[in-house]
non-specific protein-tyrosine kinase (Proteiniclasticum ruminis), 236 residues
Amino acid sequence: MKSNLVTLTDSKSVAAEAYRTLRTNIQFSSYDQEVRVITVTSSRPAEGKSTVACNMAITFAENGKKVLLVDTDLRRPTVHKKFKLPNSLGIVNLIMNMEMLDEVVHHNVTEGLDIITSGVIPPNPSELLGSRKFQRFVDEMRDQYDTIILDSPPLLAVTDAQVLTTLSDGTVVVAQHGVTKKDEISQAKDLLEKVKGNILGVVLSQIPPEDNGYYYYYSYEDKKTAAAKNARRSKK
C-alpha cells in the first residue's frame, strides 16, 4: 500500500479531487509563462509538503503529462518511503555523475510518472542543489518532461528551498491546518520574495474531514443555486 497517496488509493475521494483542483489552478496560474518546474515546500517540517508533492505529481501524470518527481529534501527524504522505492541511488549520485541518469530514474512508477529519489544523505545539501551540475540537470529535464516537481526542504529550516525556487517556474507552500502560524507563512513568503520566486499559492493540508466535507458541500450547493438563478432569469 502506498502511503498517503489518496490520488491512487481513493481517487474518488474529496481529498483526491482537491489535488486535481490544485493541478488545474497551477496550470492556469500564468498566461505569460507555462509553469513546468514546480518547487513544493513548507515553512516548517512535518506539514505535509511531501504528501502534497507526491499527489500533485500523480494528478499531473493522470492528465496526460510526462512527469518527473525529484526528492530534493536531502536531509529528511521521504518520497522513496511513500512509493516504496529503493533509495541507494538518487539525485545526489546523479549530481556527482550525470551519466548515471538511467540508473537513478524509476520509470513509470505510475503511468506517466518517473521518480528520482534522494540517494544517500550528503554532508553539503545546499551546495549540491546550488551547483551548476544541478542547474544543468534541471535544464536537461525540461527537454524530456512536461512537468517537473521538486520536493524541497522547509523554508525556515535551511536555504535549500530558496535555491530551488530560483530554478523553478513557481513554488507551492504547504501549511498544516491548525498548526502553522501566520507569522511563519509570512516569513516563508518573505524568503521566497527575496529570491524573486513566483509564489503559486498556499495549500492547507490535513484539514479535518468535517471541515473538508462542508467546504465541498457548500461549493456544490452554491453552484446549483447560481444555475437555478440563471435559469429563472432566462425565462423572463
Notes: Residues 213-236 have pLDDT under 50 and may be disordered. The longest strand covers residues 170-176.
